[in-house]
Design a protein that fits this description.
By secondary structure, the protein is an alpha/beta fold. Helix content is 47%, strand content 12%. It has 10 helices and 5 strands; from the N terminus they run E-H-E-H-E-H-E-H-E-H-H-H-H-H-H. It is globular and about 50 Å long.
Length: 228
């Protein structure tokens, strides 16, 4: 039997935590391992409970979700962070993703979307809804020193794959664009993530913007929703 995806819900509002717990406990493939009322409790819960996913609110007392995400990502835990926010364009959301979060969701997400997102993040992918995530990165990304040099180790094909990731293409769409199989696409994506030293597509796309190989001229054809 497949092990359930263990989730910790971190939010300072009791009703919000209870609502998400109610949705998730009705799914056999997901186990709510615990709750946290602030970022410090979330970090402690990851150490103690070893969940697969943390649903992380950003604005919390004691320690906010950004710092909590940064601490979790800098630890040896394989846990991934899915940010929850009330606003779709928020500098704090960008900061959380830059700290290592694998994506974000609005708090009015439907139960099915929440479950689908958790499943996606648990497979090692990132939640990259092109329209919202693109606007967010374009608005807040700032070129740090050395960001372009980080791309110098990529082959021409890997750089091409990265540019397609910036567009929010799924593996299937990438395969069609490059005229290769999905297995080959997965290999290219895995190699470029390893070379860039990032966990997933969100961090790769942020790095691409910071390096200046993507920008305001790269607009999505439309928000295709949750990409894999």
């Amino acid at each position: 039997m497949t092990q359930p995806i263990r989730v910790v819900i971190a939010d300072d509002q009791t009703l919000v935590r209870s609502g998400f717990r109610l949705v998730l406990e009705g799914r056999d493939e997901i186990e709510v391992a615990g709750e946290a009322a602030n970022g410090e409790e979330a970090v402690q819960a990851v150490r103690r409970l070893r969940p697969d996913i943390v649903l992380m609110d950003i604005r919390m007392p004691v320690m906010d979700g950004i710092e909590a995400t940064r601490r979790i990502m800098s630890s040896s835990s394989p846990c991934r962070v899915l940010v929850l926010t009330t606003f779709d364009l928020d500098e704090y959301v960008y900061s959380a993703m830059a700290a290592g979060a694998s994506g974000f969701l609005l708090k009015d997400v439907t139960g099915d979307q929440l479950v689908a997102s958790i499943r996606l993040i648990a497979t090692g992918e990132a939640l990259l809804a092109p329209t919202i995530t693109r606007r967010l990165i374009e608005r807040y990304a700032k070129p740090p020193l050395g960001s372009r040099s980080a791309l110098s180790s990529l082959t021409a094909r890997e750089l091409d794959v990265l540019k397609h990731l910036v567009r929010g293409l799924s593996n299937a769409e990438l395969a069609a664009e490059l005229h290769v199989g999905e297995a080959t696409v997965k290999t290219h994506v895995a190699r470029l993530l390893a070379k860039l030293g990032v966990r997933d597509r969100v961090q790769a796309v942020i790095l691409a913007y910071e390096a200046g190989i993507a920008g305001a001229g790269h607009r999505p054809e439309g928000d295709r929703g949750f990409n894999t």
